[in-house]
Please model this.
Amino acid sequence: MVVEKKHITIEQNTEYLKRYAFLEKACMRTLAGWLPGVPEWEAKNQIGLHTWESGDSADLIYQRLRELRTYQPERNLSDGLKLLARELDHAQNTAELIATVYLVVKKALLAAYRQHPEATWIEFDNPTVVTTEKVLPAIERQVAWAEKFFATIEQDYPGWPAWRDYIAGLLAADGGVTGTEAPATAPQRPESHELLLPWKECQRVKSWPIFDPSVDVEPDRKAEPEAHRLWRFKHYVNEMTAAETLGSILWMTPEMPWEYQYNVSRHLWDEIRHSQLGQVRVQQLGWKVEDVPQVVQIYNVMMTLPAVDQYALLTTVIEPNGMPEKSTNREHWEEIEDEISAAAVSYDWSDENFHIRWGKKWTPVLLETYGYKETPEEIAARTEAWLMENTPVKMQAKMALEAHQGGQHG
Ligand SMILES: [Fe+2]
Ligand SMILES: [Fe+2]
Model:
């Protein structure tokens, strides 16, 4: 007689998938909230990508859950898992963040995804197996990156093992990723781990230069094409602060629908990509990224506004105002046969169309969700007036003025 291997039921399968998606979403939220708080440039760039990838994996699993007729994937999750998600935010530094999000939670998720085809009825549950195959490559890369990077920074942040052990202990106390392992006893919480989110000021490695608005002069495109190009791509490098702004916005708006959170996670990664296209180009032009002055002021001043105001300002004022300059730059760079710069701005322009579309879609929902009495037009006008007074970036003020002169909106 053939001994049948034990498999999980369809109901158990659904519970596993709910926990996977919840943990991916928890990683997305913690990484987004922490993006401004991580000073190391490489980690910032990777965390931006992984914020989006975590959201995308959660979304893929939600799709499978809907096929399995689970439309409320966060219903009846254990208190232990919810506690773990809240506690993940309480890391105190880059090492504690990476040691927990990646080296505890994502590593355990990776093992569970690898195991899932054997746990389920593979012959009948093929779509779930396809889903795990889709989410595996991203999380494999994430964990591999974290292991390598962590070795380069762990000595800078003594004391991280206690926090890592605590988070690992919370997961073990709730039966592991699947919730079915014998629960360990609840761990003791290390002292003095107050919540540092949302970050009021974005962090940079101490030796990096900070932007000085008084010496930021825009060179004339036609008269000084090389100086203009360098100036422009240095500002692209600083779209890192747009990504950081979106990280804090995402973290501060958990009441919003999943689709919004999913869109913001992508928006965040797009701004990381815009910073990277700036980095690629300034490096090609002979600069080091660590020598580009960092416009931390725009993140810091925007954080004096509530999340809804920040989102409306970014997506219904700053981004629409920025569009004409991108088209002009593309034409200009094509004219002088700088095809690399033209290609870079053409993808930026393409991404921005979606950012503006998302802004139109989600600003009214944010206003409604958080009890604003303003219309989308009113909050755009109010935050734009605020921008004119408060932005440290002359380019933003100039774009706003030109947008109104051109009668584009107002
Ligand atoms: Fe951008
Ligand atoms: Fe954008």
